[in-house]
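Task: sequence in, structure out. Protein: Carboxymuconolactone decarboxylase family protein.
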Amino acid sequence: MPRTAALKSEQVPTNSKLTLDAFSKNIGFTPNMMATFAQSPIAFNAWASLFGSLSKTLDVKTRDSIGLAVSEVNGCNYCLSVHSFAAEHMAKLPTDEIMLARKGHASDPKRDAAVRFARKVIETRGHVSDADLKAVRDAGYTDANVMEVVALVAMYSLTNFFNNVFDPEKDFPAVAPAGAI
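Result:
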């Protein structure tokens, strides 16, 4: 049950409205998470800026796979629904790849290295081993790419924590709960 209400359009603070309207136009509707997050223009716009910047890194399949892996570890059922939907409809990942990503893997070796590394980052709170760092580098990722993976982990964790705290009403197709796979 939601712990705070998603805002109606007329309730959105002026400093959140432009950002929320842009997302809504792009997606085709206003997700409850965003309508809730918009209550804090500072936090919402900071997240939106990070999201916009990181949407230019790596490729969509890798980004969505990282989102799935991180959301599974953080137990965020709202984000698992969102990322599963995005992975299927935007990244065009088949169901078996979505399930692999939730487990921290991918069938593509390079993407697998990034997803495994992202899962290690969240599980160890960034205390990865030299071998973990070597594995992602050996797969062809530069240090700049590795920094982008870490930033993606942090961004997805932000929305995971937000949704776990406020539990907005689900508005994407339900998937198996975190830990159920």
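The chain has a mean pLDDT of 95.
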